Amino acid sequence: MTNYSRNTMRSLLMAVTMSGAALVAVAPLQPAVAQVRNLPDFTDLVDQVGPSVVNIRTLEKVSARSAHGGAGEEDMLEFFRRFGLPMPNMPGMPRQAPRQNRPQQEEEQPRGVGSGFVLTQDGFIMTNAHVVDGADEVLVTLTDKREFKAKIIGADKRSDVAVVKIEASGLPAVKIGDVNRLRVGEWVMAIGSPFGLENSVTAGIVSAKQRDTGDYLPFIQTDVAINPGNSGGPLINMRGEVVGINSQIYSRSGGFMGISFAIPMDEAVRVSEQLRSAGRVSRGRIGVQIEQVSKEIAESLGLGKAMGAMVRGVEAGSPADKAGIEAGDIITRFDGKPIEKSSDLPRMVGGTKPGTKSTITVFRRGASRDLSVTIAEIEADKPVVKTSNREEKPKASAAGQALGLAVSEVPEAQKKELKIKGGVRVDSAVEGAARAGLREGDVILSLGNIEIASVKEFESAMTKYDKTKALPVLVRRGELAQFLLIKPAR
User: Fold this and answer.
1) Per the CATH hierarchy, to which homologous superfamily does domain 49-88+103-165 belong?
2) What backbone torsions phi and psi does residue 183 show, to the nearest 5 degrees?
3) Which CATH architecture has domain 401-486?
4) What is the spatial distance between Cα 191 and Cα 455, in angstroms, rounded to a whole number?
5) Are 162 and 129 within 8 A, CB to CB?
6) Hey, which of 81, 251, 280, 480 would disulfide with 312, CB 3.0 to 4.6 Å?
7) What is the pTM of this model?
8) Superfamily the domain 284-377 falls into
9) pLDDT (mean) for 94-118
10) Which residues are catalytic?
């Protein structure tokens, strides 16, 4: 045995005669155990933020006849339209006078219960617009049981944000958090008055951000228990900062089902600043009707991925019309920021001050171009004007038979009414064209990325049509335009 082998054996013998601790020291390393995190403790947060949360009760004036039921009850039910539950009778709430000997005059009756939180030390309070909507009187109760009559400074239904004011000073104002730092999976807490139960605390995690529910703003989705009466209360992060206003729930029963939505605080603050300074919110508009771009349309037009907002119609004389935006354009950027989905555009434009000059990037017939537009102030939508065609129908062309189409020239009166320069009118649509959604009276403005001004151009474009591929057709129907996809016959 070599000296090396003897030394090795001697070392091993010494190791086995040592203590168990030594044996553990020379044992193979074990895999690292994942760190176990303790569940959060919300007690300090409740002490910190709780005094800033208020209970809001609203009253309305109703006639004695309504006080016996009917209209008054209907209005209370309307307050809870988002939740599907009637207003319960809770201790401490104003009650109706007995039916006997009730005076035949206007009476103040409870309309609903909500929550809010102190925005400034001098009495400005933030809540939901639907909490104070239709109220004749707003009562704010602090955690120290002081009660104040509040003045509605302003309410914005689009964002569902409202600001009310009470005559008080030295109030405990909340700290505003940075929504951009909020992460999915992060713990959050809510304080409010569900079913009138004041200062109730619930907690959960952020389920998603930028959740598009079809409303004007993208919401924060959480699994924090929210019920009627929580509306307008704060959503609080673990640093004790308010990151959202609890506003809505998704429910099939009217009660909490694990999905609730909060208005992001950065958007709410912008709205509140305008409400406090002007009593209303000024938003930008450009005057277009839009829809989502499907994957099939994007690929067939050469856009690549499904993104942007497809312009279905342009309001005459609007900023978009003056900028040269056309029906069928796909708006892909606003002031350099990408439009990932169609709902991004109204939010970006709405957040731009009227009078601002902005740059809009559109994808049109296979190429992108930048257009300059001056933002106008938002106004009520104009009604859709139905088109009529009383002129004699020109002779139809059979060039589109392969698609199931028969088309003809667009009468001059219809061109003038629709404010278009060309196109062809659909006289009949069968087979593939009918399956795609085309119908008699539609006006075809383009085939693929080829603009169509007349039947002759339509026939020319048809000679270049690859019958093995789907063909996107830009169609004008009344005041609106849309892309329809005619798929090849199988």
Assistant:
1) Trypsin-like serine proteases (2.40.10.10)
2) -120, 145
3) Roll (2.30)
4) 66
5) yes
6) 480
7) 0.63
8) PDZ domain (2.30.42.10)
9) 64
10) 130, 160, 231
Helix (H, G, I), strand (E, B), or coil: what is residue 120?
coil
CB contact set of 128 (below 8 Å; sequence gap of 6+): 114, 160, 161, 162, 231, 232, 245, 247
Task: For residue 87, report the phi and psi dihedrals to the nearest 5 degrees.
Answer: -75, 125
Residue 422 CB neighbours (<10 A): 18
Reduced to 3 states, what is the DSSP secondary structure of residue 107?
strand
- How far is it between the farthest Cα atoms of the chain? 118
Q: What is the pLDDT of residue 344?
A: 87
DSSP label at 411?
P
Task: Kindly provide the b/e burial profile for residues 467-482, where b requires at least 16 CB atoms within 10 angstroms of the residue's own CB.
Answer: eeebbbbbbbbebebb
Question: What letters, b where the CB count within 10 A reaches 16 and e where it falls short, cover 191-205?
Answer: bbbbebbbbbbbbbe
Rounded to whole angstroms, the Cα distance separating 311 from 388 reads 23
Q: What is the pLDDT of residues 387-425, one digit of tens each?
A: 344 444 444 455 577 778 888 888 888 887 887 888 888
93-120 core/surface letters (b: 16 or more CB in 10 A; e: else):
eeeeeeeeeeeeeebebbbbbbbbbbbb
Distance (Å, rounded) from C-alpha 447 to C-alpha 149? 63
Residues present in the chain in total: 490
Distance in angstroms (rounded) separating the CA atoms of residues 234 and 118: 10
Report d(CA 406, CA 402) in Å as an integer. Answer: 10
The architecture that CATH gives domain 175-278 is: Beta Barrel (2.40)
CA distance 208 to 219: 8
pLDDT per residue as tens digits for the range 16-28:
333 334 434 444 5
CB 240 within 8 A of CB 49: yes
CB atoms under 10 Å from CB of 287, counted, come to 23
User: How many CA atoms does the CB half-sphere of 31 hold within 13 Å?
Assistant: 2
Strand-pair partners of 235: 190, 244
Token pair 């605390």 is at which residue?
Answer: 201
User: By three-state DSSP, how is residue 352 classified?
Assistant: coil
Contact 264, 258 (CB under 8 A): no
Strand boundaries in 80-199, DSSP class E: 107-118, 124-127, 137-141, 147-156, 161-165, 175-176, 187-192
- Distance separating alpha carbons of residues 260 and 101, to the nearest angstrom: 44
Is the CB of residue 309 less than 8 Å from the CB of residue 293?
Answer: yes
**Alpha-helix runs per DSSP H in 265-376:** 265-278, 295-301, 319-323, 344-350
